[in-house]
Specification:
Blueprint (H helix, E strand, L loop, with lengths): L7 E4 L9 H19 L3 H15 L9 H7 L6 H7 L10 H9 L4 E5 L3 H11 L7 E4 H5 L6 H11 L6 E5 L2 H11 L2 E5 L10 E2 L2 H26 L1
Parallel strand pairs: 1-2, 1-4, 2-3, 4-5, 5-6
Helix pairs in contact: 1-2
Length: 233
């Protein structure tokens, strides 16, 4: 897959561009706190119950990502918008993100493709000040009613953008959704492991590594063209 110049670069959001701390606080502290108050339970007991209910659904189901669904499920009477606003100070961009996006924006269209609902994408992009870097933003769950793990999602994105899978690069931190699935379609996907526990040809530990890989991809066709000319002489 080396030696091809991409037409589109796609990024996941949570765990890739934005620290997942914000979403963790919403799902693992905010909602359990509201449920504890409603049910008259100690926080830890309420949290255990709430998390068990999450797990029954699982990350492969669209409800997993839908905060409005969970507010209805637990019959929480407060506003989910107010809950999210409570934790906006937890929204933090990884240190390498802005510089890389700034450089990429000058050369490529950049898109965001996320499992997160629009409610999370909008508040995180606005608070982090990242919206301006992206030509288009896609929420698998809000826009298409599915989770990103399907090949159909990536095929649909390619169709909307008018590119083939081979003309797209995708970077994300979920091994299945962001790496295995897009790779199986022919997208040049990289698995971003910011914990540095994994290594391999398609594994990145930060976005600076991606910048280096991209520079190699761009230069490869130039080298091949020069080599071809030399053979003709």
């Amino acid at each position: 897959m080396e030696g091809r110049i991409p037409k589109i670069i796609s990024f996941d959001m949570d765990g890739t561009l934005v620290d997942p701390d914000f979403t963790d606080w919403v799902w693992l502290h905010g909602i359990p706190s509201l449920y504890a108050e409603k049910a008259g339970l100690p926080f830890e007991e309420a949290k255990h119950f709430v998390v068990e209910e999450y797990l029954k659904v699982g990350e492969g189901a669209i409800e997993w990502y839908d905060i409005k669904y969970w507010f209805q499920y637990f019959r929480l009477e407060t506003s989910w918008r107010d809950l999210m606003q409570r934790y906006v100070d937890k929204i933090k961009v990884y240190p390498d993100v802005r510089d890389i996006l700034e450089k990429l924006k000058e050369k490529f269209p950049i898109i965001l493709t996320s499992n997160a609902g629009r409610e999370f994408i909008d508040i995180e992009m606005k608070t982090a000040g990242l919206r301006r870097y992206f030509d288009q933003i896609f929420s698998a769950t809000s826009d298409f009613g599915e989770v990103k793990k399907t090949m159909g999602f990536y095929q649909r994105i390619c169709s909307i953008l008018g590119v083939t899978p081979r003309e797209m690069i995708h970077i994300g931190d979920h091994y299945e959704f962001d790496y295995l699935v897009p790779r199986s379609l022919g997208i040049l996907a990289y698995y971003l492991d910011r914990s540095s526990r994994q290594n391999g040809e398609d594994v990145l530990n930060d976005l600076r590594e991606f910048e280096k890989r991209l520079n190699v991809l761009i230069k490869m066709p130039e080298k091949e063209a020069k080599s071809g000319k030399e053979e003709l002489v």
